[in-house]
Design a protein that fits this description.
- The complex is a heterodimer of chains A (191) and B (185).
- With 191 residues, chain A is an alpha+beta fold.
- Chain A has helices at residues 2-28, 53-62, and strands at 35-37, 40-42, 72-77, 91-96, 103-110, 124-126, 138-143, 150-153, 160-167, 185-190.
- Chain B has helices at residues 2-29, 34-39, 109-112, 124-129, 132-137, 165-173; strands at 47-49, 67-75, 79-86, 92-98, 103-108, 116-122, 142-145, 150-158, 176-181.
- Classes of the chains: A alpha+beta (191), B alpha+beta (185).
- At the A-B interface, helix 1, helix 2, strand 5 and strand 9 of A face helix 1, helix 2, strand 4, strand 5 and strand 8 of B.
Chain lengths: 191, 185
């Protein structure tokens, strides 16, 4: 009787541990080979046949198609440089320089990877359309209400994700170092 | 006390096995992966433009809205596939995914180096059947091997500015993928 009870409890505990760990890793998007620059993280191997089992399971669950390694690299940011979560009710400024690439795009999504609806139909910027200063730098203001210059509307969502995609770039293809930077800085201005 | 510790240790080990096996089984068990989503709205072996990602009804999460996207959902069981993708003015790329969304090959306009990306997609078995001399005479023919019989080809054309989206969509509208029936031997 004791053996029976013990094994029953063990199996229940094992199932809880195993499924709990799977749920945790897949909802958080765990993957190996992360390349982190400031607040930005990319997983260049996720776009190749060297993708690890965790990233495979994550993309199968979410339905996303990772950007191919021969196409480009995608950097994700869920916090600012200080580590605070990206909150759509606050104002953030994304500024600085980008690594070498033929084109880049920056896009704002909600936590599930959907675009955030807004009146101007603006979901991001490309390297060709962003307004730059005399030195070639740029500043993008992410805010719920209209701003002058490069305004990226956040629609007031509770959490948003910024994805910086570099197309036709040497990064991640041949090398995997964090010295590739610089990536743009994300700073919170007001809340 | 010792006994309880042993039970817990057993539960941890079993839990680890459950965790690893569920992670490994996820790709084949998922019914909301990209291929499944696209099989509801695209025919097989044809290039279909995807509607612009907007708001809540995007086909897949984390799509880049600056790109016009077209998809060829392929099935190589009837023969090899020929893909022709004209280049748009800005940036065009073609990415190949297996049935389980693993990107196994990607090429962009610069790597293609011509006015269009032309290539043949076949399974390793079909590749082995390609006659040797044909392989040599068509040296500029790009042959890609698909690890799985079914999969996705995603064509992306960049619109550097929103006003250029129509141009990017037009470029992709002329793309095609079609099956070449197997040569009868």
């Amino acid at each position: 009787m004791r053996l029976f009870l013990g094994s029953c409890l063990t199996f229940i505990l094992a199932a809880a541990i195993g499924l709990g760990a799977t749920w945790l890793t897949l909802t958080r998007g765990v993957a190996f080979g992360a390349l982190t620059v400031g607040a930005w993280t990319a997983w260049p191997k996720t776009g190749s046949v060297d993708i690890d089992p965790y990233a495979r399971a994550t993309i199968a669950r979410t339905g996303a198609l990772p950007i191919g390694a021969g196409d480009g690299v995608a950097f994700f940011a869920r916090t600012d440089d200080a580590g605070d979560a990206l909150d759509g009710r606050c104002t953030f400024v994304v500024s600085g320089m980008t690594p070498a690439a033929r084109y880049w795009t920056v896009t704002l999504y909600d936590a599930q990877g959907r675009l955030v609806a807004n009146t101007t139909d603006r979901h991001g910027f490309t390297s060709a359309e962003v307004i730059r200063d005399a030195g070639g730098g740029f500043a993008i203001t992410v805010a719920p209400r209209a701003r002058s210059g490069n305004w990226l509307p956040s629609g007031g969502v509770e959490r948003f994700v910024l994805v910086w995609r570099l197309y036709d770039t040497p990064i991640g293809v041949a090398s995997l170092t964090t010295k590739e930077g610089p990536m743009p800085a994300i700073t919170r201005k007001s809340c | 006390m010792m006994r309880i510790a042993l039970w817990i240790l057993g539960a941890l080990l079993l839990g680890g096995i459950v965790h690893l096996s569920t992670v490994l089984a996820m790709p084949s068990a998922a019914n909301q992966d990209a291929y499944s989503r696209l099989s509801e709205r695209t025919p097989v072996n044809a290039v279909v433009p995807l509607p612009a990602a907007s708001g809540q009804d995007a086909t897949m999460p984390f799509m880049d809205p600056a790109f016009a996207v077209a998809v060829c959902r392929y099935d190589l069981s009837a023969g090899a596939l020929k893909l022709h993708a004209p280049l748009s003015q800005a940036y065009t790329s073609v990415t190949f995914y297996t049935r389980n969304s693993v990107a196994y090959y990607a090429i962009n306009d610069r790597a293609a180096g011509r006015r269009a990306i032309d290539l043949d997609l076949m399974t390793p078995e079909q590749r082995a059947q390609v006659p040797e001399e044909e392989d040599v005479t068509a040296a500029d023919r790009l042959i890609i091997e698909s690890p799985t019989q079914r999969g996705l080809i995603v064509l992306r054309a960049l619109a550097p500015e929103p006003s250029l989206m129509a141009m990017a969509r037009r470029a992709l509208a002329n793309a095609q993928c079609r099956i070449e029936p197997l040569p009868t031997q």
